Amino acid sequence: MSKSDKPQQEPSVVRLAGSVDLEHAPDVRKMLLDAVALGRNVLVDLSAASYIDSSGIACLIEALQKARSAGADLGLVAVSIQAMRVLELARLDMVFPIHDDIAAATAADA
Amino acid sequence: MNTSAANTLREAPGHGFADDVQFLAAYSQFFAVSQDLEATLETALAGIVQGIQADSGALYLLDQDGGDLVCRAVVGFHDARGKRASPEEDILGRCLRRNAIESTAEEIGAPVRARSILCAPLAADGRPFGVIQVASDRADGSFTSRDTNLLQIMANSAALAVANAHKAEDLVRQEVMEREVYLAAEIQRSLLPPAGQNGLPIHGYNRPIRLVSGDFFDYFVLPDQRIPFALGDVSGKGINAALLMSKAASLFRCLGKRSDDPASILSIINKEIHETSSRGMFVTMVAGIYDPATGLLRFANAGHEPPLLRKRDRSYQTFPAEAPPLGIVPDMEFRTTEAALDDGEFYIFSDGLIEFQYGDQEELGVEGLIQLVEGLADVPLAERLKTLLNTLDREGWALHDDLTVLAIGEDRGRADD
Questions:
Q1: What residue numbers bound the domain in which B134 lies?
Q2: How many Å lie between the alpha carbon of A101 and the closest alpha carbon of chain B?
Q3: % of chain B beyond a pLDDT of 70
Q4: Chain A residues inside the 8 Å CB shell of B237
Q5: Which of A49, A42, A50, A53 is nearest to A89 (CA)?
Q6: End of a domain among B118, B144, B173?
Q7: Pair B197, B345 in one domain
Q8: Closest by Cβ to A91, choosing from B233, B235, B323
Q9: What digits encode the pLDDT tens for the residues B177-191?
Q10: In the predicted model, what is the mean pLDDT of residues A76-97?
Q11: pLDDT band at B416 (very low <50, low <70, confident <90, very high)
């Protein structure tokens, strides 16, 4: 697979629900890194994520860094108001591509 | 068995019930004092071999990953020490799997005088973790039911002793680790500016939620009297956060003496942390420099909680981050912001402060912090941070994260009030 083929492929979607925090970080990290390992772009659906802390964000950042070093990307989708507040405060909206929904994310990719 | 154990147990039991009981009592009592695993294993086996008058014995424990049985103590069977046996194999494996006494039935009562073997499981909480094997070369070639009973009882108390010795070893290991964390915490505290540097218009406070902190603050006075300052918060908690915190703090200490541009200091620290970043960890940080001569604050904010400027007229201004935290993206532009202290006060804090929680729901928040600060406006700045935290503690607010706060303000003018 060449790098230029990647955007044409369906992205892998990971849904995170509930608290994305220190306690759940090991599971979240594994889910995200497994998705990144598929080599396709990854979309993380945060619509059901009620709370996210710095450990949860670290998992997202590690996955983003791994995805980009493999020539793919990782975007956030349907970010809840609470999570968005955290991301904007830390200006992580400058780091992650953020989309309203999967359709918008896929359109942005094409 | 070592001499003292031999002395304790004195002689092997006779054939009477009372002799057995006496021997068993001495056997289990001996373990009460032993916390050394190797010594316990040797004693356990030697006592059993002596107790049931076997000719040889071996004690096997499952190795750490629970795979093979490994021979850890021997009496007689000298070539067996260190031998590994798969739990799938022969009498040892059968005894372990069934968690029950096993004997080599084919040899018992065989016409040719043969060696008989008896195996008892060592189990804790119903889970077998080892096997004691004894062998007899007696003329009649077999163990009696008394031997079997005695072995069962002795194996039980041996198992208890071995499990205790294991726990004692774990405890010692835990204590060593705890001591190391204490030492790390001590080193970490020494990285913070010494408390109560009299006369300086800057004050900081750090309270870790665990022993070590993922937060830090720093300030120092340059030869021209200007004061570089910084406050940072590493993602996560515990030792890994503390180690990254030490790196960020050291980089600031070094760069703060060489550059008076907070944006370029953050830019260099960002690159350094990104180069060796691990597991997506990052650092939010406000770094700046205060000039007491002009009252000018210059600072840059990398993804950190917005600092608060309390103005002379008691209005507040916040300074939200204009760039993401450090260590995420290698090439990032930071911007230096200027503000006049103008007899006001400047507060930088980690989110631990505004996430102070009352009961299940209510968080202190920035509004709550402002209320507290207003209530303490008459307390000199040097004591205000401590008083503020004491107030929260007294009212029953609970801390959930490392907490750090740094305040800059001149107490001049108060005398005129």
A1: 3-173
A2: 23
A3: 89
A4: 22, 55
A5: A53
A6: B173
A7: yes
A8: B323
A9: 999 989 988 888 888
A10: 93
A11: very low
Cβ–Cβ of A91/B303 closer than 8 Å?
yes
Determine whether B247 is exposed, middle or buried from the number of CB atoms within 10 Å of its CB (0-12, 13-18, 19+): middle
Give me the residue from B237, B281, B324 closest to A95, CB to CB: B324
How confident is the model at residue B412, as a pLDDT?
A: 58
Q: Is the CATH number of domain A12-102 3.30.750.24?
A: yes
Interface test with A, best of B239, B274, B308, B328 (most A CBs within 10 A): B328
Cα–Cα distance between B306 and B302 in angstroms, integer? Answer: 10
Q: Distance, in angstroms, between B283 CA and closest chain A CA? A: 10
CATH number at residue B408: 3.60.40.10
More confident residue, B32 or B46: B46
Residue of A nearest to B277 (CA): A62
Q: How confident is the model at residue B9 (pLDDT cuts 50, 70, 90)?
A: low
Asked if B284 reaches chain A (Cβ–Cβ under 8 Å), the answer is yes
Q: Which has the higher per-residue pLDDT, B304 or B91?
A: B304
Model ipTM value: 0.88
Long-range contacts formed by B353-359: CB under 8 A, 24+ apart = B353/B403, B353/B404, B353/B405, B354/B305, B355/B400, B355/B401, B356/B392, B356/B397, B356/B398, B356/B399, B356/B400, B356/B403, B357/B397, B357/B398, B357/B400, B358/B395, B358/B396, B358/B397, B358/B398
Nearest CB among B280, B303, B320 relative to A65 is that of B280
Answer yes or no: do A55 and B284 touch at CB < 8 A.
no
Of chain B, the percentage scoring pLDDT greater than 90 comes to 45
Q: Does B233 touch chain A (CB under 8 A)?
A: yes
Q: B206 lies in a domain?
A: yes
Residue B7: what pLDDT? 47
- Measured in angstroms, the CA of B319 and the nearest CA of chain A are apart by 11
Give the chain A residue nearest B302 (alpha carbons).
Answer: A90
DSSP structure class, residue A66: H
CA angle B194, B198, B204 (to 5 degrees): 50
Residue-wise pLDDT for B138-160, tens only, equals 766 678 888 889 899 999 988 98
What tokens does B372 get?
A: 């507290």
